[in-house]
């Protein structure tokens, strides 16, 4: 297997790294996204992620396939959490192994950019005085 | 036809699943949704997924399809 | 401290990640370089890295400073091993935390590209039938 | 003046430190090195570091400087 897509309540960089690392690829590029403690000058108390899980997994797999078929990637892991997270906790990890590091950088950035545009996952930010679904309104 | 709702769309409808009858296409479903839940029109975008794939307005809906309302995504 | 540069006999992605992660940055980009088992169709048995350590640390620090002062990076860790390594083992790790992920990708790629050009570290590849200092000759 | 050698330069010289006298600039040091160890001329590049910083050919050398011969680097 050259791709791993997973939605879980807890994910780590190490899981993704362990999946993609192999002695035939010299370089691994990883993106790790964490909950920020402040957004638009407001203190974030927690986040909640809701997933349309079967479709989200399919969209994550499309991203993985594109990087392998078109971008020179050997192995890719795309992990996303679901449920509640506190500031500092990891919500998404993408790890890419490729023979050429420029390809690994390009594919990892493509994967996180595309995930944020197409994968049906929704983030609700909780503040001390309320809550909001992120990016829902113009 | 059962229609799944997520994120803010679920909050606006007040439930995670609604039943919609008499709509034959994605466009007709959207019209029904905007009429029934006008706050959906204020969202940055509204997509419909049919059988776990994004669907264009012209797509015909079958009773057996898995249909879902996808408000603006914000994963990552 | 917003930068960590280290040359050691053993390094891990987790060390670099632990240093740069903080709740004020949403994104971390990591490059991890490993020993490949094959280079130019020849099986690699081991690698040996030699460092001019005090100068290498200074050059690594220059790279770190540039990413922080000019590329929008909040924290960066640059780790490199010295000594012998086997195929699959990690020889370099660069982790970058930035408020904007595009900046983190750019800075991480800049850092590894520049490290390979300027930092006085030399790699000797061992094959079943000999050994060679990498890139020494045209 | 003590001159440190690394990587393939150390192998070519056969030792990690040599003593060089009568050179006043980086350029003169390089000439001395090429004359004494002709195989150094076959390298892809040869840099001199003075006090742990890359130095241009015109840089003047002091007896107290830490001088090092830097063959093509290959870290990472």
UniProtKB/TrEMBL annotation, chains A, C:
Source species taxonomy: Bacteria, Pseudomonadati, Bacteroidota, Chitinophagia, Chitinophagales
Enzyme class, spelled out: transferase
Domain of life according to the entry: Bacteria
GO BP term, pick one: Mo-molybdopterin cofactor biosynthetic process
InterPro entries given in the database record: MoaE_sf (IPR036563), Mopterin_biosynth_MoaE (IPR003448)
EC number, UniProt record: 2.8.1.12
Protein name as it appears in the record: Molybdopterin synthase catalytic subunit
A Pfam cross-reference name: MoaE
GO molecular function: molybdopterin synthase activity
Organism for this UniProt entry: Chitinophaga tropicalis
Keywords: Molybdenum cofactor biosynthesis
TrEMBL record, chains B, D:
Pfam families in UniProt: ThiS
Record key words, sorted: Nucleotide-binding
Listed GO biological process terms: Mo-molybdopterin cofactor biosynthetic process
Origin: domain of life: Bacteria
KW Heme (keyword) present: no
Record's GO cellular component terms: molybdopterin adenylyltransferase complex
GO MF, one example: nucleotide binding
Family: Belongs to the MoaD family.
Protein name: Molybdopterin synthase sulfur carrier subunit
């Amino acid at each position: 297997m050259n791709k791993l897509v997973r939605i879980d309540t807890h994910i780590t960089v190490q899981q993704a790294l362990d999946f993609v690392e192999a002695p035939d690829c010299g370089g691994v590029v990883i993106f790790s996204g964490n909950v920020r403690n402040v957004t638009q000058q407001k203190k974030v108390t927690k986040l909640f992620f809701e997933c349309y899980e079967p479709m989200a997994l399919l969209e994550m797999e499309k991203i993985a396939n594109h990087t392998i078929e078109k971008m020179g990637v050997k192995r890719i892991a795309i992990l996303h959490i679901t449920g509640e997270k506190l500031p500092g906790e990891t919500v998404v990890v993408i790890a890419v192994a490729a023979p050429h590091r420029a390809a690994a950088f390009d594919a990892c950035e493509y994967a996180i950019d595309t995930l944020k545009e197409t994968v049906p996952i929704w983030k609700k930010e909780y503040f001390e005085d309320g809550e909001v679904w992120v990016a829902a309104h113009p | 036809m059962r229609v799944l709702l997520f994120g803010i769309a679920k909050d606006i409808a007040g439930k995670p699943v609604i039943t919609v009858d008499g709509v034959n296409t994605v466009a007709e479903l959207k019209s029904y949704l905007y009429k029934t839940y006008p706050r959906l029109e204020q969202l940055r975008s509204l997509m419909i997924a049919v059988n776990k794939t994004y669907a264009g307005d012209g797509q015909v809906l079958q009773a057996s399809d898995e249909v879902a309302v996808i408000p603006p995504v914000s994963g990552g």
